[in-house]
Amino acid sequence: MPHDEQILAIASALERRQAILFVGAGISMSVGLPSWTCLIDHMLTDLGLPSSFAAAHGTTYQEIAEYYRLKHGSLSLLVEWMKCEWQILPEQLRTSELHRLIVELDFPLVYTTNYDANLEMSYETFGRPFTRITSAKDMATAPVGKTQIVKYHGDFSDPDTLVLTESDYFDRLSFDAPLDIKFRSDAFASTLLFIGYSMSDLNIRFLLHHLWSTWRRTGLDRHRPPLFLFMHEPTEVQVHVLKRWGVTVLSGDGESTGDSLSHFLERLLQRRNAKARS
Per its UniProt entry, which superkingdom is the organism in (predicted)? Predict the structure, then answer.
């Protein structure tokens, strides 16, 4: 079976409680949440700009969000719209195979760049205790023994924590915010699995490169825990570039991205359960 060795490595890390799951927008989109294209279109419409503006001028959504904040004075209107659009009912999550598998795998640490609360709602729906981390205060008061869901790019409950505009992203590139310090500490001792990413997110690509370069400077990078990234149909370019940064790309074998990932996570869950019984 493909990826048997890698699945065993992740299952072993889960057994040791030294594993991190990093969840991207693809997981939320699998249950019907809007794509980034919808967010861009909404901002452009609100700003009175044509939907073709971004593509015609090579403008990123971070730049558009920056302009939106400058024009409106804040992102409060946008955040209110996102709160309404980026949520689903618990019943929808209960029928989501991906969310069920994520909860059952019981990663001790789940990082996400998603602003929505669907991961938290999934843990509530399937009866798994968790604590949400959005700030240094949360880090200091987090109870022991519960899965930590770390909202790496912020949470709707606190709009000031959102990493959305170009300035927000530039501020985070120094990787010296409390959540960045936590992630560096967690990542140095854990096997990482990234899911739900297309690798078009420059911030995540920079994060992967930053991890690689930090380990390299220590001269001890041969001791670095493995880092895996699941993609449905990775290109040869993506596989080789990410391998250069110490990232092993795991490809899927289903008809769609969701099917591929569900199949992979199911195999991982079976392997983890088998190890727990042995």
Answer: Bacteria
Whether the per-residue pLDDT at 181 is higher than 70: the answer is yes
Residue where the block lists tokens 């790019």: 153
Length of the chain, in residues: 278
Average pLDDT, the chain: 90
pTM of the predicted protein model: 0.93
With CA atoms as reference, report the closest residue to 62 among 207, 183, 172. Answer: 172
In this predicted structure, what is the pLDDT of residue 170? 86
Measuring CA to CA, how many Å separate 46 from each of 49, 72, 156, 167, 265?
8, 10, 20, 20, 39
Is residue 69 pLDDT above 70, yes or no?
yes
| CA 25/CA 157 separation, integer angstroms | 18
pLDDT tens string 20-44: 999 998 888 888 777 778 888 999 9
**In CATH, what is the architecture of 4-33+89-277?**
3-Layer(aba) Sandwich (3.40)
Helix, strand, or coil (residue 231): strand
| Percent helix, strand and coil across the chain, each to the nearest 5 | 55, 15, 30
Both tokens assigned to 122: 């999934």
Residues in CB range of 178: below 8 A, 6 or more apart? 135, 136, 139
Instruction: List, edge to edge, every strand of the sheet that includes 109-112.
Output: 130-133, 147-151, 109-112, 19-23, 191-195, 227-231, 247-251
